[in-house]
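In response to the reviewer comment on reproducibility (Comment 2.3), we provide here a single inverse folding case reported in full, input and output, so that an independent group could reproduce the run without further information from us. The structure tokens appear first.
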């Protein structure tokens, strides 16, 4: 089966003998021309293993796939998630960029929820509550957790804590340090049917002992009410927002509690700026399009099996976890939108961690391993702390790693030889403000969507996670000895747990 991406192979073959230093030497304008800026966000693609001719081929594919029209359809609220018959209107949570009637109606709902969030936070600020515990998982946890970890300031009105894992140790550790009388809880679940969240929500509800300090965010008002949380303390969510795209909705309540509502709104403004850029900038000047095309180049022409994300800012150390859900739950698909077979590879494995710590763990493999791993390096120019020497060292390491990976260094001793030619993208923020972080996350969201368009897959469903949930549910009675597991290996494992089915 041939696909529109097959044409890239000829360029990859043509460039196979031209390593990155040679590409840079033969094209002195590359550092400038392969970089783009949108407000506080700068992106350099100069250390990717394509040249101008390969880029022409990539942008021709982008034109044929009508990436501009695809952005329009997303932001206007078209049914971009046909398997669930839904739009994906996370952009309406942060602005009215597209201006369609549907998007404007969604925007009105979002604004009214934001007003309620502000009122709830103001009311809570007049009480003795000092700490907030947020219970949720996946998209109902990772975004708020990332932003709070990145941007919460010491001395803020509320300290915000998170429980996600069904492992009871998660709840035990978080609650151990807190006083129920001075804590409020928020249970976040789009469906309000997620096993982990319901179990942890019950622990939190019982520990608080007072429903007046328990809040919820969900599309399912009835399930929330049945759980025992009153409608006045329930914030809405909608089917037109996907879980992993939901931090901009009331799912971001913990963010608004940690940063203040103004800080939350600045995050939304940043994302809205990127929405406008992704929609209006011509493809060659469009950071989301460059980022998506680069991902496709590395996967389908360079055949990279994994992609690293390496934030050089300790405040962004949770970004790889967040992006693993955003990218791999969205793009981990093996059939086309119409259900037909794909003739091409889709998402690589995303992984990573914060530099400089990770330089002392897995960077050896990045420099000298047998697999080439494309990397997104993320840096922040302004430090926001008084330790200037540390910041200079951090930025020197960031620059050094991207340079060393690309250029390598020859040695006659094979053990001391660095092959180089390892591609990276550098994303720089002027400072880690809520606006800039909102832009960065929106950039990844739109890049993911555009990759899905280029691959012809649905970025907004996640049926792959359902089977494991079903099997876990069916095994609960077996774990309690009430039934016998049908799978012979599971039966043997249950015997190791000391569980045997009760007879008769
Ligand atoms: O892991 C699957 C998933 O459905 C995610 O897509 C979602 O973010 C997460 O579970 C949590 O779902 P909910 O918000 O409904 O509890």
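Designed residues, in position order:
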């Amino acid at each position: 089966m041939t696909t529109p991406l097959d044409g890239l192979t000829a360029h990859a073959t043509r460039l196979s003998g031209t390593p990155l230093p040679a590409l840079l030497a033969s094209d002195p304008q590359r550092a400038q021309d392969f970089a783009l800026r949108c407000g506080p966000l700068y992106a350099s693609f100069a250390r990717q293993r394509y040249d101008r001719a390969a880029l022409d081929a990539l942008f021709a594919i982008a034109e044929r796939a009508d990436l501009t029209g695809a952005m329009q359809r997303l932001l206007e609220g078209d049914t971009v998630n046909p398997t669930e018959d839904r739009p994906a209107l996370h952009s309406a949570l942060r602005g009215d960029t597209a201006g369609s009637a549907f998007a404007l109606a969604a925007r009105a709902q979002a604004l009214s929820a934001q007003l309620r969030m502000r009122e709830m936070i103001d009311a809570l600020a007049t009480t003795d509550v000092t700490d907030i515990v947020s219970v949720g998982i996946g998209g109902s946890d990772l975004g708020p957790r990332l932003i709070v970890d990145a941007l919460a300031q010491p001395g803020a009105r509320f300290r915000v804590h998170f429980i996600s894992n069904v492992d009871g140790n998660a709840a035990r550790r978080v609650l151990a340090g807190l006083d129920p009388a001075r804590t409020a809880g928020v249970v976040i679940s789009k469906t309000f049917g997620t096993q982990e969240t319901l179990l942890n929500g019950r622990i939190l509800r019982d520990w608080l002992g007072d429903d007046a300090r328990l809040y919820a965010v969900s599309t399912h008002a009835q399930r929330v009410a049945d759980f025992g949380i009153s409608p006045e303390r329930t914030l809405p969510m909608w089917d037109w927002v996907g879980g992993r795209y939901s931090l901009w909705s009331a799912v971001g309540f913990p963010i608004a509690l940690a940063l203040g509502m103004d800080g939350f709104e600045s995050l939304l403004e940043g994302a809205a700026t990127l929405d406008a850029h992704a929609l209006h900038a011509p493809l060659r000047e469009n950071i989301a399009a460059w980022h998506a095309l680069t991902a496709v180049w590395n996967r389908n022409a360079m055949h990279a099996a994994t992609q690293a994300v390496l934030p050089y800012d300790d405040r962004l150390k949770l970004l790889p976890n967040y992006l693993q859900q955003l990218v791999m739950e969205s793009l981990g698909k093996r059939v086309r939108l119409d259900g037909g077979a794909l003739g091409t590879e889709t998402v690589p494995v995303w992984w990573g961690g914060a530099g400089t710590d990770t330089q002392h763990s897995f960077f050896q493999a990045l420099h000298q391993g047998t697999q080439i791993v494309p990397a997104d390096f993320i840096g922040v120019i302004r430090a926001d702390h008084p330790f200037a020497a540390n910041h200079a060292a951090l930025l020197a390491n960031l620059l050094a790693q991207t340079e060393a990976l690309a250029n390598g260094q020859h040695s006659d001793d094979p053990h001391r030889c660095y092959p180089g030619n390892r591609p990276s993208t550098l994303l720089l923020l002027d400072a880690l403000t809520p606006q800039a972080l909102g832009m960065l996350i929106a950039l990844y969201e739109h890049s993911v969507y555009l990759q899905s368009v280029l691959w012809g897959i649905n970025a907004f469903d996640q049926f792959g996670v359902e089977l494991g949930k079903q099997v876990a549910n069916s095994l609960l009675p077996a774990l309690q000895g009430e039934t016998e597991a049908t799978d012979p290996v599971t039966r043997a494992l249950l015997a190791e747990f000391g569980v045997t089915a009760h007879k008769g």
